Amino acid sequence: MVMIKMYLLLVLYFQCVPSSATKFPTKCWLSRRTVGTCIKLLDCPAAITGKSFRSCYTVRGELYVCCKKILWGDMRPRRITGDCGMPRYEIYNGLQTEYREFPYMAALGWDSTFKAGTYDYKCGGVLIMNSYIVTAAHCAVLNGLPPSVVLVGGTNLNDSRNKPIKVTQVIRHPLYKSRNLYHDIALLKLEKCPVANPLCIWTLYALDSVNITAVGYGHTFFAGAHSERLLKTHLSVIPNRICVRHYRGDTSLPKGIADTQLCAKDFVRQSDTCQGDSGGPLILRSTSPQGDEIDFLVGITSYGGGCGFGKPAVYTRVSQYIDWIESIIF
Q: Which residues participate in catalysis according to the annotation?
């Protein structure tokens, strides 16, 4: 009788203990009755970078969210993306780039005070359409002067084959104020169209990949000399709600990290954007449903707490400025 009771107790015990093989539901619903998949929060870039997310459940303290990993179905054609490859139906501790690997990359030049006819390249930018460059608003005027020329093509700054093009107009975002770093975006109109393909703009808020690339001619170490050759670094997007912790009390960001900004950091090599990289592009390489790899502009280098010092760098989220950009260009 005692043996039977013990057996019954053991059966009841094992029935009450959750099995490690318990299968949780994977199918979930997003807004607009779109089907998603329940996966770990850190494996869902759309949830990491998006404004909000829908949770599914928690397993051993780890949050699972409803994720839509392929966002191409949400991409809608815009005038700004019409001719830039849209499907139809430097850098601290940086890596060397191939010749014209980033042909849409631009360097902003100011008239040199030492030698007439030469330029000092102090900021970056990116060609987005015809004769328009997008850059940071704080690069639109340095020491009271706008940039004189732009060098497009992503080549060495000393490459004699690449000729600078004159800047004819500088348009800073109307809400930008120099005392803080919100709306840090500007457009430059060039005298003529460069011989280079423009970079597409990612028009959604969220990203379909957390792995992105920053490109620039900036300093290769803090307070060092700038790079004559274009450099790149691979970064990961940091959720705004986490990034804001690194900038509490920063007078340049009195309202914290805004929806119009995004943060990124290199967790492996501790590479980073640095002085002189401002205005340069943050690039997402995304594979279309047709299998084509297309580069997209997702951010403009804006601000950081030092080069490779541990803080994520802050970038202007270009997708939030599509309407403004189109109102200027068209």
A: 138, 184, 278
